[in-house]
Design a protein that fits this description.
Blueprint: E1 2-6, H1 20-31, E2 35-39, H2 54-61, H3 69-83, E3 89-93, H4 95-104, E4 108-112, H5 115-122, H6 124-133, E5 136-139, H7 142-150, E6 156-158, E7 177-181, H8 190-196, E8 201-205, H9 223-232, E9 235-238, H10 247-254, E10 259-262, H11 267-270, E11 277-280, H12 285-296, H13 299-316, H14 319-333
Parallel strand pairs: 1-2, 1-3, 3-4, 4-5, 5-6, 7-8, 7-9, 9-10, 10-11
């Protein structure tokens, strides 16, 4: 089988975090003998709309770029049509790539990640046609699947992003640390976390528009370094106001770390409250602080929740399981 992957985000070099979860999925499927060809902004002109803050984020920050969006999509579509001439299936990541997949004339599956659902709600008439023509719409969480059906998708399956399961959990640092990894923006809840963690040891791996308000931030780090940060963390905080899936949450669980997350979106599929971590209302600094301090003060509780989190990640989110489910979708859709 030959599959062409269309994406507006994909690693440009070793250590690049952009679209890393897409690249990881491509490599796992490729290892199973499927011929995978990737069309990313490295192959077409994107005029600065891709990368950085992502397509939606870049258009929000620089509205003038919207005038170049048709030119970007035209370049994307031309490259995609060439790549997909002899393809059995096209796999489009994010809604804009779905429009390009439609232009190839090949059968396609569309994968939604969250920000594109926000985009779809602004232009439902446009999104509906793309969603309905997809052979299958893949969503990373039940919340996204429900949104896709509301927008007109017919055949919807939930397949979360996969994670690597380390051989052994690491040793916690002393004193215990809270880890935040992700984009430094309001929707990720970093400002609430800064308030909630006052007086505790907070490690921040990430970058974004609020970087100046987080002077201790390490910036985006290579995944090998992020693995080391997970291994030494006592607690991982995921305080997003909205979240399509929650790759950081799943990775933390795989490392045997309890997660304090907000009760939104994909976190509801990942965290079993009181068993593998703690869920708190989004934007509630007091509840977030109480949950963090409770875990920081109780090593036995951290160990119990972390052990259960790791087992849940192994059972539901390992790459072997996710790849098998993806291949089954390909077989049905091609």
């Amino acid at each position: 089988m030959k599959v062409v992957v269309l994406t507006t985000s994909y690693p440009r070099h070793q250590g690049d975090v952009a679209g890393r979860f897409v690249a990881d999925a491509v490599e796992r499927v490729r290892e199973r003998g499927v011929e995978m060809r990737v069309v990313s902004p490295q192959q077409f002109r994107h005029f600065g709309i891709a990368y950085g803050s992502g397509v939606v984020g870049n258009l929000k920050r620089r509205p003038a770029l919207s005038a170049l969006l048709p030119a970007m999509l035209a370049s994307f579509a031309l490259t995609a049509r060439r790549a997909a001439r002899d393809a059995d299936l096209v796999h489009a990541h994010w809604l804009p790539a779905g429009a390009v997949a439609l232009a190839t004339g090949r059968p396609y599956v569309l994968q939604l990640w969250g920000t594109d659902v926000e985009l779809a709600r602004r232009a439902p008439w446009l999104a509906r046609g793309i969603l309905r023509r997809a052979r299958v719409v893949i969503c990373a969480s039940r919340a996204l699947a429900a949104a896709a059906r509301e927008l007109g998708a017919r055949d919807v399956v939930v397949i979360p992003s996969g994670v690597d399961i380390p051989p052994h959990p690491g040793e916690e640092a002393e004193p215990p640390e809270i880890l935040f990894a992700g984009r430094l923006s309001r929707e990720k809840g970093i400002l609430e976390l800064l308030q909630a963690s006052e007086g505790a040891r907070l490690v921040v791996a990430g970058d974004g528009p609020l970087r100046r308000q987080v002077p201790q931030a390490l910036g985006f780090v290579p995944h090998e370094e992020l693995d080391r940060l997970y291994a030494r963390a006592a607690v991982v905080a995921c305080p997003s106001r909205r979240e399509g899936f929650g790759v950081v949450c799943a990775e933390a669980m795989a490392h045997g770390r309890p997660v304090v997350a907000t009760s939104v979106g994909g976190f509801l599929d990942l965290v079993v409250d009181g068993e593998t971590g703690v869920l708190v209302p989004p934007g509630d600094v007091r509840a977030l602080r109480a949950a963090l301090l409770r875990l920081l003060s109780d090593r036995d509780l951290r160990r119990r929740l972390g052990t259960a989190a790791r087992e849940r990640a192994r059972q539901h989110f390992s790459w072997d399981r996710i790849t098998e489910r993806t291949l089954a979708v390909y077989a049905d859709a091609a």
